[in-house]
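Ops channel
N.P.: pipeline sanity check, posting one input/output pair.
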C-alpha cells in the first residue's frame, strides 16, 4: 500500500543543509499499524507530512497503492489526499469560525458530498467520541481534549484508507 524508496528530505537554513531524512526505505501493507518513536527534531513529523503528500521529498520515491503520487499536479494530489488520507495533526488545526460539527464535516463538503450526508456522518463520529452535547460549540469554547476529538472525527469522516496521526493523544 505505501512504499518508500531511498527517500530523503533536506532543508536549507541560513545556507546550511539540514538532512532530516536520508535513504529511507519502508513498506507498509494494508491493515498494518506503524508507530514512530524518536527525539524531537528526528524527522517524525516531516515523514508524516511527506506520507500525507503535504510536503515533497528532496530525493527518492513515495508510492501509494503502486502510484508515484508526486508525479501528479497539486489539484490531483489534493483530491487524492481528501479521499484517501485522514490526518490527526499534533495541533488540531480546527477552523475557529466553524463549530465542532462544521469542522468535522469539512473534508466531506470539500469532496462534494451533500451537506445532509456530511452532517449525518460527522454527527455519528462526534457522538462516538463523546461530543454529542458540544456540536454547536466553536473551538475556542472547547477544551484541548474536546478539540482533539473533533479533529479525530474530521480525520475519519471520509473513511480514509490511510490514517496519519502526529501525537494524536497529546491533548486527550
Amino acid at each position: 500500500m505505501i512504499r518508500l524508496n531511498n527517500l530523503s528530505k533536506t532543508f536549507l537554513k541560513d545556507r546550511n543543509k539540514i538532512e532530516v531524512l536520508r535513504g529511507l526505505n519502508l513498506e507498509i501493507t494494508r491493515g498494518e499499524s506503524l508507530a514512530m518513536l524518536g527525539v524531537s527534531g528526528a524527522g517524525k513529523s516531516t515523514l508524516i507530512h511527506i506520507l500525507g503528500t503535504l510536503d515533497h521529498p528532496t530525493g527518492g520515491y513515495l508510492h501509494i497503492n503502486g502510484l508515484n503520487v508526486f508525479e501528479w499536479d497539486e489539484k490531483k494530489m489534493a483530491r487524492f489526499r481528501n479521499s484517501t488520507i485522514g490526518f490527526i495533526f499534533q495541533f488540531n488545526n480546527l477552523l475557529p469560525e466553524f463549530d465542532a460539527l462544521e469542522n468535522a464535516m469539512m473534508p466531506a463538503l470539500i469532496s462534494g458530498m451533500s451537506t445532509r450526508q456530511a452532517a449525518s456522518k460527522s454527527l455519528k463520529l462526534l457522538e462516538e467520541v463523546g461530543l454529542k452535547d458540544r456540536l454547536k460549540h466553536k473551538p475556542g469554547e472547547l477544551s484541548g481534549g474536546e478539540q482533539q476529538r473533533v479533529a479525530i472525527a474530521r480525520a475519519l469522516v471520509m473513511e480514509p484508507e490511510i490514517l496519519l496521526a502526529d501525537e494524536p493523544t497529546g491533548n486527550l
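N.P.: looks fine end to end. The first helix runs from residue 44 to 51.
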